[in-house]
Design brief:
By secondary structure, this protein is α/β, with parallel strands linked by helices. It folds into three domains: 13-203 and 216-239, Rossmann fold, CATH 3.40.50; 262-310 and 312-421, ANL, N-terminal domain (Rossmann fold); 429-560, GMP Synthetase, Chain A, domain 3 (2-Layer Sandwich). Helix 1 packs across helix 8.
Length: 566
């Protein structure tokens, strides 16, 4: 049973919260958008409201049916947020697309959602994506969008006056369709109303004491639930200052410019930050210095300042499990990573590790209004005020996702400790059985492998074979160096040692027969990763299945898919 919308006070709905900042702090800087060439465009709350209100007036003039879907295809930028505000003010529903999708997926989402208009923003591969836009769909371009003959945001808002009223939307109105990243099959359109997204946002602001003095850098995809919630929507409620990253090449500079007090990332990027530190200072030397009184404090501050994280008071990791050793490394630097857990289906409002109460390897306890329990099979069930209204156009699938008493079936397996903290142990459907009849959960083993600096990503599999195995993608820094036989020999020895370390930490039936090194990097474009950098397990397993018999027969600890070119 899909649960009813939560009760939310009118003054706590997101549009009402945003209007409150416009009234109380009209001149406060809200959004800072780099425009290239060292130029940064700053939006006050008053300016942001004026532009969004004008675009809303233009949208209303189109006389679209109320609740029409209006899509946004853009990398993170100020106008992504302004467009979402305009869509809501005009009485419509926003549909955000990942800026890394292929043309076929762009077409699927636009057609499935029945989008009536598309905002085109900052994109790297617009030429490849454009064929996916249905013919005749009205489009508007943002500043920083690829050059085109589309009508521009600036031109359109100059033609109309702002709306005469402060728009509010009923709590039960559909606010957005959040298309999942599609790790299995076609993306599904998760429906959220204003009640669910407002309850989730007000809840985390209260739980963590977020406020208008906080600064945040927006760089993870805003099309994803976590970034949309913890950056965009939190700023509607708490009123913090959002900075945007200009590009991957300028990320370090962008981070230094923002000096965030709240910083969110995913495990893969937290690991990259660590490896960047290790390139400047060997791990053993750093560990030794951190243990020296006084000197350790100076080193901690210098390392965090070098990462641009010295002002961070709350640091979070989400989207995927993060190795416990990596969490501990940041703790040793004085940065407590708070791991959280949630899904698009409950707008990420599920579990959070609170400062001083975190346990390494656990994603924390439920928010005050959230309930969690486990089935006899260990599946995590969650009842949250952030729960979706269902999947768009899929009522049968929606009903199957909930228990009779309104708990969401997450599909994750877990354990709960004596203090109510949850540990995710894998996916229910990811378990595979070896030929010896033993079930293996791949995610915890991958977590151990991914903690090694030589490895970027891994995929553990082995259904029908006597033992499991792992295919690994090496760190991006290593790939260009592997043509050197000496480097390759060192990497192979390190991977052999890693295999031994992993096998020493797992149960006997979970031991890996070998590590196979992937020849080509796993990319979003090749279909190996979702837009949020999660592995597409079925795609990876299919790609390597023709080679498995030969690999198992090889009996080597480390197998190269193909020797690097000399």
């Amino acid at each position: 049973m899909v649960p009813p919308s939560p009760a939310v006070a009118p003054e706590d709905l997101l549009l009402a919260r945003f209007h409150g900042h416009v009234d109380r702090r009209p001149d406060a800087t809200w959004l800072s958008q780099p425009m290239g060439g060292g130029v940064v465009d700053h939006f006050s709350f008053a300016r942001a409201f004026d532009e969004a209100s004008r675009m809303a007036a233009w949208l209303r003039a189109l006389e679209l049916p109320p609740g029409s879907r209006v899509a946004i295809l853009s990398k993170n930028c100020a106008h992504f947020i302004l467009a979402e505000l305009a869509i809501w003010m005009a009485g419509h529903v926003s549909v955000a697309l990942y800026p890394t999708l292929d043309a076929a997926t762009v077409r699927y989402i636009l057609e499935h959602s029945e989008a009536q208009l598309l905002f085109v923003g900052k994109l790297d591969t617009w030429d490849e994506m454009r064929p996916g836009v249905p013919e005749g769909l009205k489009q508007v371009s943002f500043p920083l969008s690829p050059t085109s003959d589309l009508p521009t945001w600036s031109e359109l808002i100059a033609q109309v006056a702002p709306l005469p009223e402060r728009t509010q939307r009923p709590a039960s109105d559909l606010a957005l369709l959040l298309y999942t990243s599609g790790s299995t099959g076609q993306p599904k359109g998760v429906m959220h109303d204003f009640a669910s997204i407002s309850a989730a946002t007000v809840g985390i602001v209260r739980a963590l004491g977020l406020n208008e003095a906080d600064r945040m850098l927006s760089y993870l995809p805003l099309a994803h639930a976590m970034e949309r919630w913890l950056i965009e929507f939190v700023s509607f409620v708490a009123g913090g200052h959002i900075f945007f990253a200009e590009s991957l090449d300028t990320f370090v500079h962008d981070l230094a410019r923002a000096r965030p007090t709240i910083f969110l990332s995913v495990p893969r990027l937290w690991l990259k930050f660590q490896l960047g530190v290790f390139r400047k200072m060997p791990p053993k030397k750093l560990s030794r210095l951190l243990k020296i009184p006084v000197v350790g404090g100076l080193v901690r501050r210098k390392v965090l300042a070098g990462l641009g994280l010295d002002q961070v008071r709350l640091a979070g990791s989400g989207s995927a499990p993060i190795p416990g050793d990596l969490i501990q490394w940041y703790r040793d630097l004085g940065l407590e990573l708070l791991e959280g857990y949630g899904m698009s289906e409950n707008f990420s409002y599920s579990h959070l590790s609170l400062p001083g109460k975190a346990r390494v390897g656990y994603v924390g306890s439920t928010y005050p209004e959230v309930m969690c329990r486990l089935t006899d099979e260990g599946e995590v069930l969650v009842k949250s005020p952030g729960s979706m209204r269902g999947y768009y156009k899929q009522p049968e699938v929606s009903a199957e996702c909930f228990t009779e008493d309104g708990f969401l079936r997450t599909g994750d397996r877990g354990e709960i400790d004596g203090e109510g903290r949850l540990r995710i142990t894998g996916r229910v459907k990811e378990l595979f059985k070896t030929s010896k009849g033993k079930y293996v959960a791949p995610a915890p083993i991958e977590n151990l492998i991914n903690n090694d600096p030589h490895v970027e990503l891994s995929c553990v599999a082995g259904s029908g074979y006597p033992e499991a195995h792992a295919v690994v993608q090496l760190s991006e820094d290593l790939l260009p160096t592997l043509a050197d036989p000496a480097v390759r020999a060192r990497v192979e020895a390190a991977l052999g040692a890693l295999l031994d370390q992993v096998n020493a930490q797992v149960l006997g039936y979970e031991r890996l027969a070998f590590l196979a090194v992937a020849r080509e990097p796993w990319t979003i474009e090749a279909g190996f990763l979702t837009p949020t950098l999660k592995i597409k397990r079925a795609r990876i397993e299919d790609a390597y299945s023709p080679q498995l018999d030969a690999w198992y027969a090889d009996k080597s600890k480390v197998i190269w898919e193909q020797p690097p070119a000399a």
